[in-house]
Amino acid sequence: MKILIVAATKFEIEPLIHQMENTQHLNEKLISCAYKKLEIDFLIPGVGMVATAYYCGKIINDSYDLALNVGICGSFNTNLEIGAVVNIIQDHFSELGVEDGQQFLTSKEIGLDAKIEMYNETIISNNKLDEIPKVCGITVNTVHGNEKSIEKVFGKFHPNTESMEGAAFMFVCENEGIPYAQIRGVSNFVEKRNKENWNIPLAIENVSKKVFEILNEF
Description:
- The chain has helices at about 15, 50-60, 125-130, 145-155, 165-175, 200-215; strands spanning about 1-5, 20-25, 30-35, 40-45, 65-75, 85-95, 95-100, 105, 115-120, 135-140, 160-165, 180-190.
- It has one domain (about 1-215): Nucleoside phosphorylase domain (Rossmann fold).
- It has 6 helices and 12 strands.
- Strand 2 and strand 3 (about 30-35) form a beta hairpin.
- The strands form 2 sheets. It has a 5-stranded mixed β-barrel with strand order 5-11-10-6-12. A two-stranded antiparallel sheet has the order 7-8.
- It is α/β, with parallel strands linked by helices and about 220 residues long.
């Protein structure tokens, strides 16, 4: 089985890479490894939707049996504790649209032919993946840290999480017909920016453990 694991930064997947075998750095973005009977490639496209879409589009094809987007996210839902691991099955390009005075209209609402919602309906036979709570999220260029903008975007999309890459990853996988999952650890709540309340190491540790459980299930 051949699996692609995509993460915006190497920092987010270092615990995974350290447990791999036969590690080869093919270039600055791509690392080839083995784990038990699995062939695993790590793709590190960089932060944001543009880099994710470009580099995923270059590498994802039917040679992969599965693609995983692994990393951290912020949570709008206080019931998702910091360190919680989630499977984001619905994601939105929440900034794709227009402003009409104080109102934001999505591209769909103004009749533009632009896909703003991604929904993962691929079937992956893996009990450990099935155990992870399924949530909806948004993908943004600007991480929210203003109470008014948080209230607006939550009222529009009712997301549980936000990231800067997820929907772009999903878009590429959908168009290439590759089974995929977006697995993230909650590093912070979406609120006025206060890094003292963040716990990135815990989020990375927990999501890495879950990914190993998924890999061991195959």
